[in-house]
Amino acid sequence: MSLPPTRAISAASAARAGSHALAAALVPAVLALLLTALPAGAAVRLPAILSDHMVLQRSATTPVWGWADAGETVTVRFGAAVAATRAGADGRWRVDLDVAGAGAGAAGGNELVVRGAAGEVVVRDVLVGDVWLASGQSNMQKPLGERKGERPTFNHRDEIAAAEAPGVRLFKVARGRAQRPADDVAGEWVRCSPESVKRTAFSAAAYFFGRRLHRELGVPVGLIDASVGGTRIELWTPSAALAASPGRAPAADDAVLYNAMVAGLAPFGLKGMLWYQGESNLIDDGDGAAYTAKMAALVGSWRGAFGNDLPFYYVQIAPHLYHVVRSAKVADAEAAARLRAAQAAALAIPGTGMVVTTDLADDLADIHPRDKRQVGLRLANLALAGTYGRKDIEAWGPRLRAMQVDGGRALLLFDHADGLFASDRKPLSWFQVAGADGRWHPARAEIERGRVAVHSDRVPQPAAVRFAWDEAAQPNLVNGAGLPAMPFSTAEPGTVLSDTSVAVPAHMPPAAPAAGTQAARFSEPAHH
After folding, report:
1. Tens-place pLDDT, residues 360-379
2. Cβ contacts of residue 338 below 8 Å, gap of 6+?
3. Taking the complete model, does pTM exceed 0.90, yes or no?
4. Burial of 301: CB neighbours in 10 Å, binned 0-12, 13-18, 19+
5. How buried is residue 490: exposed, middle or buried, by Cβ count under 10 Å (0-12/13-18/19+)?
6. What is the rounded distance in angstroms from the CA atom of residue 150 to the CA atom of residue 23?
7. How many CB atoms lie within 10 A of CB 184?
8. Largest CA distance in the chain
9. What pLDDT, on a 0 to 100 scale, did the predictor assign at position 363?
10. Fewer C-beta neighbours within 10 Å, C or N terminus of the chain?
11. What angle do CA 320, 325, 331 make, to 5 degrees?
12. Which domains are delineated in the chain?
């Protein structure tokens, strides 16, 4: 039964009055709740790298850190692992969690809980696995999809469509420069999917690396992409490491990318590092003579920042017409060969490995080879063999160990030489020989009982041999795994294993692979 009009008006007025009274009563309660919630975000703060969807490095000492009020007690819990500490005078705190046995499947669901005096921060959907940091310039930055002004990676549409991998997590570090080391970076973790690899423009080489590791190891893989095109190695190296380099004057942009994009990631737990850079140092310097020392400074400083002697796998620059289309500073076609030699010499740094790319350039006028899948797979093979101890994978191409002179011939002995052959079934290419006068001449080369015999009618007594010693060299010597031979010159220190100046990396697999060795070229397993 409806109320009389006057009564209805009175009831409506009463309802409005009641609403105002209720609102007035609720305001203090709501404010109290908000004020209670705010300190959890304000007093306890985590860096961006410790956030939803992340992968924690499976380790007994995985760092978790952040900021709180000075002197505040902070407790960190992840599953059964619990640790507590007190924030220092600067507000920073850190604990090391034992998450080595806290496995998490690809579906996620684990939570990292950080509690302070006023509240807690909860990080959700956390996996435990292996985390790799990928860095460098444009060839590392090149995304799986398209980028304006560049040719896209091979089969990019099909690869993006197949990028659903919830057990792989991606963190793209936002670009930035800083004069001092930052305590944080900008970025977020995302699940690997067709949408996320495209939206984040994630590194194609890093993606293919991580996907292969995930499939082979069956554990979650976290990938951090901190890369910027057109950048020199000095921009990625801490100032203190650069200052220790003899005879080098400081530059205004030294360390600016390290400060903004790497320093704020430390001390996040990593399994290893990937590096693809060198082109800008060749273009700007015109040569690569000092690049070995620069790599040593970078590797040593990054290992110091993240702790442990982390594996460091890198990519040698690919064939490209540097002195023709890139820079007047690159005086000749051998400058790129000298930088490659400097990169090869960096293998003297323990725990390193290098991918050779002389077979991957599809257009010599383009500094960006499109086959980033193969780059990623070869990096992954280095990690699988060198870091994870897989004996069934040959990760190295032939590398010259020694040269012997036999009359008018030079006999070359290689490591990782099982099944040597010419990839195009043509005569071996890009060999040169010199006599005592030091003048180089094209040479014929043949495979004989696992060795390569090199000779030239113009050099009756060989004194030195070099191979692929040109910016555009695309030689055809490969081993049974389909991996190209490493460029070398017996006249250059660091490119020959028997050089006393070069220490052979202790993790290098034996020359002859075990039975059942997987071919390195496009050898991913088919399962997802």
Report:
1. 999 999 999 999 999 999 99
2. 287, 288, 289, 492
3. no
4. buried
5. buried
6. 59
7. 15
8. 123
9. 96
10. N
11. 85
12. 127-386 (3.40.50.1110), 391-528 (no CATH)
